[in-house]
Write a structure and sequence with these properties.
By secondary structure, the chain is mainly beta. The longest helix is centred in the C-terminal third of the chain and has 7 residues. The radius of gyration is 20 Å and the shape is globular.
C-alpha cells in the first residue's frame, strides 16, 4: 500500500471486490486496506459486496466505510481482517445523534475480525459499527483485539448509535486493555435502538462480556434484548453502565465463572425498568452482583438462578445477604 489506502472508492456503487489480499505498510495512521466513501456528489451509493478479503497491516480499518453521504446495501462476507487498528470500521457520517446516520442495510457474515491491536482514535476493535440503520452481524469472530496497546476503546464488537440491529451466533474471546483494565469488552451496545444479541459466546474478556452503555451524548438505549448467550470467564458477565434507557432486557443467558462479578449495574439507571429474566449465574468471582442502590430499585428480576453465588455489594450498603439483595431487586419467581 506504500502508506496509503490500498483501494479508495467513491462512486455510485455496484462494486464487488472478491478474493483479494490487501497488505499495509507499517500501520500508517488513518489508512485502510479498503476505504468506501460513498458517492462523491452527495447522492446515495448502493450495492456493495466485499467477499473473502484478507486485509492486514493498516492504521485504521482493514475495511473502512466512511460515509458522509448515504451508503445502502453493503455485504461483507467471509474473509480475515487482522493486525489493524480496527478489523472493520463503519462510520456513518455525522454520528452525534441518530439523525445523522448514513449507512443503511449492512450485512456482515462469517468474518474473522481478530488480532487487531494497533492504536487509533477508533480502536482497537474487531468490528466497530457507528451510525448505521439495519445491521446484521452473523457468525463472526471478534477475538484477541486490543491486547498490545493501552488506551480507551478496546473490544470485540462495538455498536454505537445504530438502529434495527441483530447479532447472531458470534464469538468474542480474549479481548483486552492491557494497562488500564477498564476496557476489553466482548460485545458493547452504546446508544442503540431496537437491538437483539442472541446465541453468541463471550469468553475470557478483560471487562464485560455483554455490555449496555450510553457514552453517546443525547442518545439512550431503547428496546435492547440480550438473550440466549453464554459468558465464560469474563471479568464481568453482564454489565450495564448507563444513565437512561427504555426496555432493556437480559434474558436466559448463562454466566459462568466470572472472574470478578456476574452482574454489574452502574450509573443512575434506566428511565424504565431493566429486566433480568431466566438467567443463570454460576461460580462468580468476588461478587455475584455489584450495583448502585438507585439502579436496583428500577430493575425487575424474575426466574434467575443463583447457585453457588458469591457475595452481593450495593453502594452505600456494603456487603449484604442474598435475601436482602433479591428483595431489593424485586426477584419474584419461585425456585431461586
Amino acid at each position: 500500500s506504500n502508506g496509503n489506502d490500498s483501494l479508495n472508492y467513491s462512486g455510485p456503487g455496484g462494486l464487488i471486490v472478491r478474493n483479494l489480499e490487501f497488505a499495509g505498510n507499517g500501520h500508517t495512521p488513518d489508512k485502510s486496506g479498503v476505504l468506501l466513501q460513498g458517492n462523491g456528489n452527495g447522492e446515495p451509493a448502493s450495492n456493495f459486496c466485499f467477499e473473502d478479503l484478507d486485509c492486514h497491516g493498516y492504521g485504521m480499518g482493514g475495511l473502512t466505510i466512511s460515509a458522509g453521504s448515504p451508503v445502502l446495501n453493503v455485504k461483507i462476507i467471509g474473509g480475515r481482517y487482522w493486525d489493524n487498528a480496527v478489523g472493520i470500521h463503519v462510520s456513518g457520517g455525522i454520528i452525534d445523534n441518530l439523525s445523522g446516520r448514513t449507512v443503511f442495510d449492512l450485512y456482515i457474515k462469517g468474518v474473522d475480525a481478530s488480532g487487531n491491536e494497533w492504536a487509533s482514535s477508533h480502536g482497537p476493535f474487531g468490528l466497530s459499527i457507528n451510525g448505521a440503520q439495519g445491521v446484521k452481524v452473523d457468525d463472526c469472530s471478534c477475538n484477541r483485539n486490543g491486547r498490545k496497546i493501552s488506551g480507551a476503546g478496546h473490544g470485540g464488537l462495538l455498536l454505537r448509535l445504530c438502529t434495527n440491529v441483530t447479532v447472531l451466533s458470534s464469538e468474542f474471546i480474549g479481548n483486552a486493555d492491557p494497562e488500564r483494565g477498564s476496557d476489553g469488552q466482548g460485545c458493547v451496545l452504546d446508544g442503540v435502538q431496537n437491538a437483539l444479541v442472541e446465541y453468541s459466546l463471550s469468553r475470557d474478556n478483560l471487562n464485560g462480556g455483554f455490555e449496555i452503555m450510553d457514552e453517546s451524548d443525547g442518545e439512550w438505549n431503547r428496546d435492547v434484548t440480550i438473550r440466549h448467550n453464554v459468558s465464560i470467564g469474563d471479568n464481568t458477565g453482564l454489565m450495564v453502565f448507563l444513565h437512561g434507557g427504555t426496555n432493556l432486557r437480559f434474558e436466559f443467558n448463562h454466566v459462568l465463572n466470572s472472574l470478578y462479578k456476574a452482574v454489574d449495574l452502574s450509573g443512575s439507571g434506566p428511565d424504565d425498568r431493566l429486566i433480568l429474566l431466566g438467567n443463570t449465574f454460576l461460580n462468580p468471582g468476588n461478587f455475584a452482583m455489584e450495583a448502585e442502590l438507585e439502579h436496583l430499585r428500577k430493575c425487575e428480576w424474575q426466574g434467575n438462578l443463583w447457585p453457588s453465588v458469591g457475595s452481593f455489594n450495593v453502594a452505600g450498603l456494603g456487603h449484604f445477604t442474598k435475601a436482602q439483595a433479591l428483595l431489593t431487586a424485586l426477584e419474584r419467581a419461585t425456585g431461586v
